Amino acid sequence: MWSELTPFAGPVSAVSVMGFVTWLVLKGRLIALSTHQAIVASKQEVIDSKKEEITSLREQLRKVQEQRDELMGLAHVAVAAVQAIPAAKDAVT
C-alpha cells in the first residue's frame, strides 16, 4: 500500500539516509567508536586529576583549620590576660 502512494519511497529513502549519515560525519556528530573511547578516556583522566586536586585542597584546608583553632586558643588566653590587667591594677592600689 505504501508503495502505491509513493512509488519512489524506497530509493528516495535510501538516498536520504545516506545523505543524512554523510552530513552527520561531515559535521562531526557521527564518530568512530575508537574516537569516542579516546575522548571518554581523556575526559576521565581530567576527572581523576581534578579529584586528586580536590583531595589535596581539602587536606590543606584541614591543616589551615587546625592552625586557626590553635591560634584562636592562644588569642583567647591573650584576651583574658589583657582583660585581667585592670582588675590586677585595682587590686594592687
**Form type:** rod-shaped
- Helical amount: over 70%
Q: N- to C-terminal separation?
A: 117 Å
Q: Indicate the low-confidence ranges by residue numbers.
A: none
Largest sheet: none
Task: State the oligomer.
Answer: single chain
Q: How does the helix and strand content classify structurally?
A: mainly alpha
State mean pLDDT (0 to 100 scale).
Answer: 87
By DSSP, the count of extended strands is 0
Give the amount of beta strand, in percent: under 5%
User: What is the string of helix and strand elements?
Assistant: HHH
As a whole number of angstroms, the C-alpha radius of gyration is 37 Å
Number of helices: 3
Describe the structure in your own words.
- The chain is mainly α and 93 residues long.
- Helices cover 89% and strands 0% of the residues.
- The model has no long low-confidence stretch (mean pLDDT 87).
Keywords:
single chain, 93 residues, mainly alpha, 3 helices
Question: Summary?
Answer:
The chain has 93 residues and is mostly helical. It is 89% helix and 0% strand.
What layout of secondary structure does this protein have?
Elements: H1 2-5, H2 9-27, H3 33-92
